[in-house]
UniProtKB/TrEMBL annotation, chain A:
InterPro entries: ChsH2_C, ChsH2_Znr, NA-bd_OB-fold, Thioester_dehydratase-like. This is DNA-binding protein. It comes from the Bacteria. Residues 196-223 form the ChsH2 rubredoxin-like zinc ribbon domain. The lineage of its organism: Bacteria, Bacillati, Actinomycetota, Actinomycetes, Kitasatosporales. It holds the Pfam family OB_ChsH2_C. It comes from Streptomyces olivoverticillatus.
Automatic annotation (TrEMBL), chain B:
The keyword Transferase applies. It comes from Streptomyces olivoverticillatus. GO terms for molecular function: acyltransferase activity, transferring groups other than amino-acyl groups. The keyword Transferase applies. InterPro entries: Thiolase-like. SUPFAM superfamilies: Thiolase-like. Keywords: Transferase. Coiled coil: none annotated. Signal peptide: none annotated. NCBIfam families: PRK07937.1. This is Acetyl-CoA acetyltransferase.
Length: 318, 354
């Protein structure tokens, strides 16, 4: 019967990834140049100078390699005042986001402008690069821009793009923080698990019992909300022997990971088999969950000692 | 073979700031059931299924495959997914129906932004070499675009507040909208800037929500729907990813998509524009040559509800629904993706006149 929906479960979830990317020749020259306090652009066939430079012409898509050096001074083409800097942004105090057209360039570069307040910023403001003290060959080698009154000097001079020890790749780390919520069906399932009960949900259309439940029958798409307790005993439908130790996992190899059809369920779930040598595990073996103190999920499944289930009893669940 | 393809049904969830009690599949279920019921189709029976979503929003890898639990995917269905707004899923389904390989298609999209920090998440779609390491969020980028428009004399903060007021007041007639109604512009302008020149009213709400449409071809469409919203043209175009390469005060990609969709061959009476920020409506109205006689965003648009990945599909659905109920004869629907209107899709929908 539909039970009351328990309180919503939540858990912090952090997704963190260091992206490692190789650079094309133009990107490599540009980022190496920043390390050496030199700003390089690339000239398109129609004579425009793009800063930041790209490998291919944005209009014609042809490969472009004609590098030029521009000034470290430029003009703000548009701006926005950021009163509350966020994690990872170039400055920790309020600053202006700016697009800056460097002298000698025809396109603008996005970065931060260090200014005392929005009244000190306007489109057309003359600025210059403030270089980071520690430079590695990245866009953050430009610490930010700062206001700097100087005459515009729109000249770009040819540059070979050659530097000692060029940067050939970048690694950028990214972290995103989430609050994970499992939804109604999985909340019911997880709440029952805390009491060492395993709850499936029956599809009202095809009558199959799915565990873990996700709120909808995965075969016919019908909403499910009728809970039914399954297991705790079940049958190994198929299994594999794991010989590679996973990073951070305490379990010794080899061990067995299995599909287990809990009694009363029409869908097998995954679990580790222990309490028996790995080479004695077999299809049809009867198992039961082993719970450990303080853990929501069963730690593993162990043999019950019952006779093996006949193949016909679980062949539809393989 | 020429075929005519129409939107024959549209459904959406109520859009909310947060929905911690439901998974994406659970959020989609009632929407899919609603749209299939409208079309008289059983789950699993549409000839093609295509969806739009992004795993980054809720931070759940392969959430789009989990969402498939809601569609009735067994026996195996013909299915596809795009990692962008569902409007592009609709485009793929339209192509599929034109080939003659299917007569009906289910298109859906869902976006659950509340588990994460949307402003941080959307920085990850930017150029990873020169831009993403600076973490410029979508509000910052829209603010740069807005200032460029103000500098160009195309709009001012007062006019932008007026756009916010008009959209959110229109949303009072939309039971699914998240923000309904608005204080007058003078009051809105008294607030501090969120990120100058933007105030909170210039930005969309953060929303959880889902939407779905059914497409059908020729006589199948006529059988399902008394007044199908025929897709007379649909096209999408993209601009360079370098923000400093683009003219942020214009949208040549929207104009080109509209030309290819046939938007300029006859006037439209209604336009549903996917403009998450007020100034973007100014850009789109110009690019699409919309006069004051065109009803723009009677639904309240993205300023009233912005379930990212579904907002564009909802524009197509809202425009189609007006044709279904006889409130429009020829409507334009627009969807966007990326920062500052980088990529744009335009569709022209028509109802048959009696």
């Amino acid at each position: 019967m539909p039970g009351p929906t328990p309180e919503t479960l939540t858990a912090p979830l952090v997704v963190e990834f260091p992206f490692t990317r190789s650079l094309g020749p133009v990107q490599s020259a540009f980022l190496t140049g920043l390390r050496e306090r030199t700003v390089l652009g690339v000239r398109t066939r129609d004579g425009r100078v793009l800063v930041p430079p790209v490998e291919y012409d944005p209009v014609t898509a042809e490969e472009i390699r004609d590098l030029v050096e521009t000034a470290a001074t430029g003009t703000v083409t548009t701006w926005a005042w950021n009163p509350a800097p966020r994690r990872g942004q170039p400055l920790a105090t309020p600053f202006a986001w700016v697009l800056v057209r460097l002298d000698g360039a025809d396109t603008a570069l996005l970065h931060a402008l260090d200014a005392p307040g929005p009244d000190a910023v306007h489109t057309g403001l003359r600025v210059r690069i403030r270089w980071a003290v520690r430079r590695t060959g990245a866009i953050t080698d430009i610490a930010c821009f700062e206001p700097y009154d100087s005459p515009a000097a729109p000249r770009a001079t040819a540059h070979s793009g050659a530097f000692a020890d060029p940067v050939t790749g970048i690694t950028t780390s990214a972290r995103l923080d989430y609050t994970y919520t499992p939804g109604r069906a999985q909340t019911r399932y997880l709440t029952a698990l805390a009491g060492r009960r395993i709850l499936g949900e029956r599809c009202p259309a095809c009558h199959k019992v799915h565990v873990p439940p996700r709120g909808a029958c995965p075969t016919c798409g019908t909403p499910t909300d009728e809970q039914t307790e399954v297991g705790p005993r079940g049958t190994v439908t198929t299994f594999c022997v794991v010989n590679i130790k996973a990073k951070g996992l305490e379990i010794d190899v080899p061990y067995v990971y299995a599909h287990i059809a809990l009694d009363g369920a029409d869908l097998a779930l995954h679990g580790r088999i222990a309490g028996i040598p790995y080479d004695r595990v077999r299809m049809g073996m009867r198992v039961e969950p082993v719970w450990t103190e303080g853990a929501r999920h069963p730690d593993h499944y162990r043999p019950t000692g019952e006779p093996d289930a006949p193949y016909d009893a679980y062949k539809e669940l393989l | 073979m020429t075929r005519d393809v129409a939107i024959v049904a549209f459904a959406q969830s109520d859009h909310r700031r947060r929905t911690p009690e439901t998974s994406e599949a659970e959020m989609l279920l009632p929407v899919l059931r609603d749209v299939l019921d409208q079309a008289g189709l059983d789950p699993g029976t549409p000839g093609f299924t295509c969806s739009g979503s992004s795993d980054y929003l809720a931070g759940r890898p392969f959430s789009f495959t989990m969402a498939l639990d809601s569609v009735g995917a067994w026996p195996p269905i013909a299915e596809s997914h795009v990692e962008t707004d569902g409007a592009w899923a609709l485009y793929e389904a339209w192509v599929k129906l034109l080939t003659g390989e299917a007569d009906t298609a289910l298109v859906y999209a869902c976006g659950k932004s509340s588990p994460g920090d949307l402003r941080a998440v959307l920085t990850r779609q930017l150029d990873p070499y020169y831009v993403a390491p600076l973490w410029p969020d979508p509000i910052a980028l829209a603010a740069l675009q807005t200032q460029a428009l103000i500098d160009a004399g195309a709009t001012d903060e007062r006019a932008l507040a007026g756009i916010a007021v008009r959209n959110r007041r229109a949303a009072t007639a939309n039971p699914h909208a998240q923000l309904q109604g608005s204080a007058p512009a003078e009051r809105l302008l008294e607030a501090d800037h969120l990120l100058r020149p933007l105030r909170t009213h210039d930005a969309p709400p953060i929303s959880d929500g889902a939407a779905a449409v059914v497409l059908a071809a020729d006589d199948t469409a006529r059988r399902i729907c008394p007044r199908p919203a025929w897709i007379r043209g649909i096209d999408h175009r993209i601009e360079p990813h370098g923000l400093g390469v683009r003219d942020l005060t214009d949208s040549p990609s929207t104009r080109l998509a509209a030309e290819h969709a046939g938007a300029f061959t006859a006037p439209v009476d209604t336009a549903e524009l996917h403009a998450p920020f007020t100034a973007q409506e100014v850009v789109l109205r110009t690019a699409l040559r919309l006069g004051d006689d065109v009803l723009v965003n009677p639904s309240g648009g993205a300023l009233a509800a912005n379930p990212v990945m579904a907002t564009g599909l909802i524009r197509l659905g809202e425009a189609a629904a007006r044709i279904h109920r006889g409130a429009s004869d020829r409507a334009l629907a627009h969807a966007t993706s990326g920062p500052c209107l980088q990529q744009n899709l335009v569709a022209v929908l028509e109802g048959e006149r009696p």
